[in-house]
Amino acid sequence: MKMTSGEKGFQVILFLFILLLCVIAIYPFIHIASISFSAPKEAGRFGFHWFPRDIDLFSWKQLLTQKKIWIGMRNTTLRTVLGTVLSLIAMALAAYPLSRKHLPHRSFYTMIIVFTMFFSGGLIPTYLLIRDLHLLNNFWVYILPGLIPTFSMLIMRNFFMTIPVEVEESAKIDGANDMRILWSIILPLSKPVLATLGLWAAVANWNAWFDAIIYVTDTDLKTIQFFLREVVVTSADAEIFGRVTGAANLQYETSIKAATVIFAVVPILIAYPFLQKYFVKGTMVGSLKG
Amino acid sequence: MEKAHAVPFESANIPAKQSKFRHTWREYKKSRYLLLMLLPVLVWYAIFCYGPMYGILIAFKDYSPVLGTWDSPWNNFAYFDYLFNQSPEFPRILKNTVIISGLNILFGFPAPIILALLLNELRISWFKKMAQSISYLPHFFSWVVLSGIVFLMLSPSTGPVNYVLGWFGIDPIYFLGDTRYFRFSLVITNIWKEVGWGTIVYLAALSGIDQTLYEAARMDGANRWKQTWHVTLPSMLPIISIMFILSLGGILNAGFDQIYNLYSPAVFEVGDVIDTYVYRQGIVNFQMGLTTAVGLFKNVVGITLVLGTNYIVKKMGQEGVL
């Protein structure tokens, strides 16, 4: 298609405008990264920080020598891996029966499940339940309460419904039962949607912070998001800022905070190409109505 | 039970009720593996979703941890009476919640639609792809991470935002500590996080529009603006209405993660919302019955709004979510 000059002008303005938005989206991350590597005086300079100047690695050293940061990383990694795998299994166990038209009382079961998306007990009753189940200060509190994200489960169900019945009918004639069909026919056909929902679950687990605040007091069970919050949001972590030893870390507060943010962000940045590819696909699937 | 089923019936003679039961039983038997899979799922929903719903009872009781939920005495709606008639805080948190959500809908709802329309007009496809990738990025981080970033970006003494304002002769603004700017800061930072991500559903809808409609419109002499108004927007209306219902249903969700990580006592007056209040009073100050009542109020309003808007949207001839 040939562009008129008006069209060209429009494209140029649009290009510049979108470019500006991209810079606004991404600059804060560049800023924080630069500051984390900068000496206190440079880190406190008013203005833009496109790259680190006056490089000083003290903040990173201070951060990486904190034992609790690694405890947090361990716990977060563990909950992410375990939470994702178990979530996928639980979602498949829910989604497959609900996707089969011959399941008796299918709409009733679907209804009682969908209802929980619109109505819940709320924070306090949930807390009391978790307490009564003896899940306070228990690693499983990171996994069990969020095991089945209902919205994701319905996306999986919708996907299963699109798989033609003929595929499983031939397996049934060969004597396979429903569990076998799910495992060896349906799931292999659903890899893209499993990848997407798995990544959703993984990111949700990685980013979860509130459960570690409300349900856990044991330092050995805290997650990286919790320690991150103690450093960057509440500035409550006395040790990392050197308030305990009286060392000269105070002036490093800003760059220590910046380093901590980057530390928690890097794993997601590494996974970003995958995240993007599959996350977007899933959102498209999700936009279909159930 | 087993024996009863073993008795052979002549189907014509069985009373209708019994026959139905036998039919259901046979259906269940045929789907036993499916039901076996569904069973643990239903148990999970019963415990972790319906369990807390049972706990809502304490909103109507003088809850005592010793007596437990069931045996605690009823209190004759004392909490609701307090909230609606006496509490100095409840009107404030309700007002803050509605205002912050309202601003989020007013500015945050159209933002991704506009961005999607703009991205859709871009003719340079590599740039379009790159812009999308970049704009999704903040969506993947928790509000804990993003607050750390927002604090530094909006800092009155070192933040680049105030630095840029300085170019225009504006004195540094304490965005997160000043009651005049706090809500505004919430809305802007929320858009920053979610606008790119929000474009996905709209871009999908845009790519599904039949191109011949545009050709026909051009034949009729429609310019770009008219094409957008008469072809693009009407084609996007179904998805826009679904997204709108969902956002209205969440009007009492002002964004706990964001606010809890960004607010401070200095801005409680304008920034304390239902969820932050419930957490502070319920968990930190142990006012469990009272805050359960607040949570119930919020839930009931939420579900009413979803069903209500869903009904209205359907009446208007659009597809709803339910």
CATH architecture of the largest domain in chain B: Orthogonal Bundle
How many strands appear in the DSSP assignment of chain B? 0
Could you tell me the strand content of chain B as a percent range? under 5%
Structural class of chain B: mainly alpha
CATH C-level class of the largest domain in chain A is Mainly Alpha
Distance between the termini of chain A: 39 Å
Q: Cα-atom Rg of chain B, whole angstroms?
A: 27 Å
CATH topology of the largest domain in chain B: MetI-like fold
The name of the CATH superfamily of the largest domain in chain B reads: MetI-like
Helices and strands of chain A: which structural class?
mainly alpha
Low-confidence stretches of chain B: 1-10
What average pLDDT do the residues of chain A reach?
A: 88
Strand content of chain A: under 5%
Shape category of chain A:
globular
Low-confidence stretches of chain A: 286-290
What's the total helix number of chain A? 13
CATH class of the largest domain in chain B: Mainly Alpha
Helix content of chain A: 55-70%
Q: How many strands, what sense, and barrel or not for the largest sheet of chain A? A: none
User: Percent of residues of chain B in helical segments?
Assistant: over 70%
**How many beta strands in the DSSP annotation of chain A?**
0
In words, what does this structure look like?
The complex is a heterodimer of chains A (290) and B (322). Chain A is an all-alpha fold and 290 residues long. Chain A folds into two domains: 56 residues, no CATH class; 232 residues, MetI-like (MetI-like fold, Orthogonal Bundle). Chain A has 13 helices and no strands. The longest helix of chain A has 34 residues. Chain A is globular, with a radius of gyration of 25 Å. The two termini of chain A are 39 Å apart. With 322 residues, chain B is mainly α. Chain B is built from 17 helices and no strands. The N terminus of chain B is likely disordered.
